[in-house]
Each structure stands twice: as structure tokens, then as C-alpha cells.
Sequence to fold (669 residues):
Amino acid sequence: MTAAPPPLVAVHDLVKYYPGARTWLGLGKPRATVRAVDGVSFEIPPGKTLGLVGESGSGKTTVARTLLRLTEPTSGTFHLGDDEVFALAPAPLRRLRRRMQIVFQDPYSSLNPRMTVRQTLIEPLVIHQLASKSERAGRVAALLEEVGLDGGLTDRYPHELSGGQRQRVGIARALSVEPQFLVCDEPVSALDVSVQAQVLNLLADLQKKRGLTYLFIAHDLAVVKHIADEVAVMYLGRIVERAAASTVYSFPRHPYTRSLLSAVPVPDPEAQRQRIVLEGDVPSPANPPAGCSFHPRCPHPLKNDRCRTEPPALRVVAPGQLAACHFAEQPMS
Amino acid sequence: MADPLLRVRDLRTYFVTDQGGGTARAVDGVSFDLHAGETLGLVGESGCGKTVTSLSILRLIPEPPGHIRPGSYIEFEGRNLLTLAPKDLRAVRGNRIAMIFQEPMTSLNPVLTIGDQVAEAAIVHQRLSGAAGRARAIEMLRQVGIPDPEERVDHYPHQLSGGMRQRVMIAMALICHPQILIADEPTTALDVTIQAQILELLSRLQQQLGMAVLLITHDLGVVAGSADRVVVMYAGQVVESAPTRTLFARPGHPYTEGLMASIPRLDRPRERLHSIPGSVPAATAWPAGCRFHPRCPYAWDKCRTEEPPLLETGADGQVARCWLVSEPARRVKQAS
Fold:
């Protein structure tokens, strides 16, 4: 990375453990702790996008929820500008929420079915006292226009909107308080391809126009490629690779990233590809494998006893590129 | 070419709705052939009618509110599936033609062991005893790559991961060695590494068993890797049909073209995505003329009033429901 401005978002050693569910009536021994997020660190410069990629159970959504303190982190720090978000008391936290917002995956279940588009967009303005009564209608109209929605939709309820329109309302709601930092948690996964492209382009335009900083969470590497400046790949609660997007896609170093990239179906029947099909499932985060947590599925030819016993640190493997693999420098085939 | 295994002709499946008024013409005159041993991709976005098409083949459409219109015709082994007596239809379902669904958790019965569910079709259709059925189920679970099948056979669906559940669904579907497997978005709910496993498994089993697969998906990437031919649906109709290579090399219909351009791609540099403006119209009110014209960058007067038939493009086996086929000079984007 070049001489960058100080990051807007700086997360250090974020940990979120969920205590294991008690067995019947609390008798018997409690189940194992689920290590949903196990020491995640990253920074995002202002106006940039970090793509956070991983499969189900990798902990990417838990990262999003803890940053916004929708669930409380177990430990770690999160600086948004000069504020340490995890240390804030409830009242200052509420004020700070203006500066960070989230767009959820499913725009249907994240919109209140009993509120019209207008009510949905006004609520944050009222809570944060951002607009007088007379200004509100103008603000709603401006927001709708900004996200490309017809002004005639203001009195509609969510069930009267298409999936793409609902997601635009979700984005407008997040933007209504003029945040600096937007967490997008799988914002296009529930949408059809043609609509997905519309929403991705919208997010890119808004970022340019408003100078927004994004944490963009997705399971689809191709989607992330179109929006992210930097990419972090998660596996079982940890970041296993992190680098500039172009580096991750051209020169992936971690065997998991390499497998993930090779597994994405390419819409070209002529494509000649070396597909690495991983064996087995993602292990349970309640009982992660010893050593490198990826070792049972790892296709790396040099895999050895060290992988089974010694967890690899996330280390610099090339300029600007971090990977958590003992053999990140060695080719896989 | 040999006679097709399955011949779908002018299939119309309509739903009468209370809300929104009127009849939803979900599938509105769909025709295609499925040949022995091939994989046919049926592609389209939400609401295009691809799932209703697949459910209509096995008459799994709830009636009411749905009904398959008279004149529709689905031929399999010389008989029209749509007029088959219930008893004869049952002998086809799950036996000669099997189906797997998108969401393996909701399609499996949570209170029966996977062994019971996998064996059921063999016990019903092939009159196997319980013990023989169980043995077959274990054998099937092994074939679909479930580790420790002797132990897993007594597990319940909630004890399995999503990928394992989809393997169980495949074992259930294939236990009677059907001639046709209808796979409705079989990998959509799965993570990408698991999706790769399941697609590989399906193609291996297809070769072993020599069955034909109707692969229904919204993902052109999946189609590119698996299908021999592709049928693209939009607004209840087939808008294009072609061999996979032809379709990707030279999409004939502007919808296919737009769909391909809007896919984020790993194998291309980062650039602004093309998007198709607007969204899919409601099935109760398909647009007049060509149903794609309100979203089409090439549309002209004729498209707004006259509905195009499927026209042969001249390329090998490719047809497209678009007037551009007869007036290729008009393939110039209108300024919007």
C-alpha cells in the first residue's frame, strides 16, 4: 500500500465467543464455546472498500454485527476515526451510530412490514434529530432520488416493492443519517443477476459521490472483485489472507483462497481451468481442528505434521500481502 | 438425432390469484426437448417460470390455485404425462423421473432417518423388503460420497451439513436409476466449495447411470460448466435455445446478452457492470408485443405491438424469440 491517509476504520484483534448452550436444565457439562470470530484485525482507509469473503460459518457476519455493537464483542478494539467504539457508553454509542450504518442481506426481513417507505426513511432522521418536520419530505425525496427510486413509491409498504427496490430502500435508510462508514452484509446475495448489477453499480456511485467507506461482506468472490479495493478471506473465524484486491485475484497465496477462486463457476464454456475441488465440509467453529484449522481440507502438496500441530500466523508473504499458511510461498502444483 | 426422451409442447400453467387481480400466466407456451443422456440447462431469473415448468412435468402444481391448460402436452415414453391416471403417474414419479430441490433441509422429512427416506422409493417402486431397501440406501449413500454410510443411514437430516443433505437428496432421487433427473437449483443454497463438489458428483453419476438431467438454475456460470444445451426463459416463455457453446459465443436474444453482461466475473478486469434496466414484469400483466421490449436496448415500434415467434438464427440449433433475428441491422443500442 502507498503512503495512505490514517484509516477511518481500524479493528484490532476482534474476538467473539459464544458460550456453548447448556445441556438439559443446566445439568451435565456445558457444550464447547463457539469461536465465531477469533482474532480478526484490519484497517480501511477513508473512501475505500474492504471486501470480507468467506463461506457460511466463517464468522463474517459476526464481524459485522460486533462492529455495530448489535452483539457485544468478547474482546478487541474498533476505532472509527478517533472514537473507540467498543469502549463507548450507551448514550455516546447512540450518537456515534449516526456515523456507521448497515445494509442487510435480506431487504424483506430487515424492513418493517408495517411502515411505508416514507416512515422507514423518516425514523432515523427523527431519532438523530437531523431534520425539522418541514424539511423531512424534501429529505425523503432527495434520498429516494439518490438511490434511483421513483418518488411515487413513498407511500408503499415493503410487500408492494420488488426485491431490488427493497434493497434500495434499505440503502436509503442507511444513508439517511449521512454515515461515514457503511457495513454491507451480503447486500446483493438475495437479488437476481440483472438487479444485482444495478445495486452494485449504485453502491459504487454512492461511494464516489459521498466518499463513503465500505466493509463489503459477501460469499461471492466475483461480486467482491467488482467493488473492493482490498480483500480479506475468512475461514473459521480467522482471516487467512489479506491483500489488495488485484493481488488476491491474480496471485492468491493461501490454499483456501486458491481453492475458493477455482470453485467459482465461470460463465464461459471454453474456459480451461484447473479446478481444485475441496474435500469435506467447513468444520464446526465449536471444535476447530488443531494446528492450521484448514489442514483437514487443504490440497497443498507440502502439507505436513507442522500444519496439524502449529497454527500458522497471519504474516507478510509478499509486499502488501498477508497469508496464514506455512507454505504460502510454495506453488501448489 | 434420435427421438427425444421428454417432449414438452406448448405448456401453459396458470395461477388464479386473489390479489393483484386476474390470472398469473406463469408458464405461457413453453416447448423444449430433452434427449437421452444430455444435460439441458433451463435458465432464467426469479419469476420467469422455470420452476413452475419443472413442477408441471411431474404434475406437482397445487390445483387450485394452479392449473395446466388444455392443449399442453408432455410426452415421456410415448405417453402424455398430463393426462396420465394417478396410479400410472405415481409409477413414473421418483422412479423413471426423479427430482431434487433447492433447499435440502425443507425437502427432507425431519422426523425420519435419512436411510428411511432414501430407501422409500426403492421399497415402493421396486418392492424391496425393508432390509434390502436399507442395504440399497447404504449403497446409494456411499455412491454419493457420504462418509461412514453404515452409520449415517440412521441419522436424521438435522445432523447433516447442507452439502451432505443435498447428497442425501441426490441419493433419494437416484436410487431407482431414473432416466431423467430434474434438478431445480441444486446448488443455490450451498457454499461455493460445496457447490463444486455437488456439481462434480452430479456429472459423475450422470455418466455412470446414463441419465438425462434437466438442470434449472439462475446461474449462467453453472450452466456453462455443466450443460450441453441451454433454454433461456423470460416472462413465462422460452426466449432462446441453443447449444451451450453457441449461446455463450453469440447470444441471440437481447435478454441473454444483458444477463451475460451483468454477471460479475472473476476472469475479467474490474469494470462497471452492465445492468438490465427495470425489473421482471408481473405474471398477471405481461407486456404486449415482445415481453422484453420495455427493458430492451434495441426495441423499436414493431417490438411494442407484435410478439415475435422463436426464429432460427442460422447458427447450429439456435433459436431466439426476437425480431432482430430477421432484422439484424437494428442491433444498435438506442440512446436511453
